[in-house]
Write a structure and sequence with these properties.
The protein is an all-alpha fold. It contains seven helices and no strands.
């Protein structure tokens, strides 16, 4: 049965709860980053194998996945920085409680929370946290964030694919593909199994969702 007389948490208790939740989310983002890096290394090895066999089409498909994975890691790093910004502001407010007497409205926290609500893996936790922050007077009601509307055109994407292929294959493919390179740079063992392109695409795509 709901207790109408339950003790209301103090500002210090709320901040401790929010800070703990933020640390948990940051650890989750660290794990995702680590897994993305591992899958990217596998993708790079596969691109080298495919380049050796002359399968340029498959190399380009994996290069696009690699690009998206790297962009995802950049977004994760930004999310971690925003989480850290929220934590620092909350702890600063706690240090001023004796003077001001309560948690104060923070535009900085509101902006960071609003941006982080667009990150799928953070939505549930940030949704609950934002409701508690609204009740505590730290932020106002959330609004739709329209930041992520930037799409690269096809020409820019193709240029990036060429650059990635050149980098991963040491110039065997990509924008400097006509430059002679030592084959040993991309040599692979003939005994290696045929790379499963679809499986690798699916793994990288799943990690970004």
């Amino acid at each position: 049965m709901f207790n109408l007389f339950a003790k209301k948490p103090t500002p210090e208790e709320l901040v401790r709860k929010w800070s703990s939740s933020i640390r948990t989310q940051q650890r989750g983002l660290d794990r995702q980053t680590s897994t993305l890096k591992q899958e990217e290394k596998k993708a790079e090895r596969t691109i080298k194998q495919l380049a050796k066999r002359g399968d340029t089409a498959s190399c380009k498909i994996l290069a696009k996945e690699l690009i998206q994975s790297r962009k995802q890691r950049t977004r994760i790093a930004t999310s971690k920085a925003q989480l850290n910004s929220i934590s620092m502001e909350l702890n600063y407010q706690v240090s001023k409680l004796k003077v001001v007497g309560s948690l104060q409205k923070s535009t900085q926290v509101m902006k960071s929370v609003n941006r982080l609500m667009s990150v799928p893996q953070l939505q549930r936790t940030l949704g609950e946290m934002s409701r508690e922050m609204m009740k505590a007077g730290v932020i106002d009601e959330m609004t739709e964030d329209m930041m992520d509307g930037l799409d690269e055109d096809e020409e820019e994407e193709e240029d990036e694919v060429e650059r990635v292929l050149a980098q991963v294959t040491d110039g065997l493919l990509g924008e400097i593909g006509q430059v002679p390179v030592a084959v040993s740079h991309v040599e692979v063992s003939e005994a290696e199994s045929e790379p499963d392109l679809e499986d690798m695409q699916n793994r990288l795509s799943a990690l970004r969702s």
